[in-house]
Amino acid sequence: MAKLRHIALAVPDPHKAAKFYSEVFDLTIVEPTHSPIADGVYLTDGTICLALLNYKTDEAAGLERGKDWIGTHHFGFWCDDLEAQRKTIEDNGGTFFMDLPHDKKSLYYEMKFRDLDGVVFDISEGGWVGARK
């Protein structure tokens, strides 16, 4: 059975983004990458690899988006304490975006934020359908 173990985000400054995600979610910065198609930084939580990449050419990034396109749609972090995590995010420059669903007592309640580059991510205490903490 395949398991999700890698997420890549296109960002304008991989080192700035790595600092944000490592401080906000205690991810470990593993190593930088310098390939013919992108420069970037790899981080991990011990299970998932988060690649923060700055593509060098439109072709490398995909012509439909181009090298200046930033982001993915969104991704989520399962956390133990929403309010403590919210404070850490905001203390590091992240901004609150929205709640989903609006009923905070829902099992799958999540808070959405934007990182320093505007990329959307979720935090949840209840997780997501099919996910395990």
Automatic annotation (TrEMBL):
Record Gene3D superfamilies: 2,3-Dihydroxybiphenyl 1,2-Dioxygenase, domain 1 (3.10.180.10)
Pfam families named in the record: Glyoxalase (PF00903)
Designated name of the protein: VOC family protein
Coiled-coil region(s): none
Taxonomic placement: Bacteria, Pseudomonadati, Pseudomonadota, Betaproteobacteria, Burkholderiales
Keyword set, alphabetical order: Metal-binding
GO BP: L-methylmalonyl-CoA metabolic process
One GO MF term attached to the UniProt entry: metal ion binding
Organism, scientific name: Acidovorax cavernicola
Source species, domain of life: Bacteria
Residues spanning the signal sequence: none
InterPro entries tied to this protein: Glyas_Bleomycin-R_OHBP_Dase (IPR029068), Glyas_Fos-R_dOase_dom (IPR004360), MMCE/EMCE_epimerase (IPR051785), VOC_core (IPR037523)
Domain VOC intervals: 3-126
SUPFAM superfamilies xrefs: Glyoxalase/Bleomycin resistance protein/Dihydroxybiphenyl dioxygenase (SSF54593)
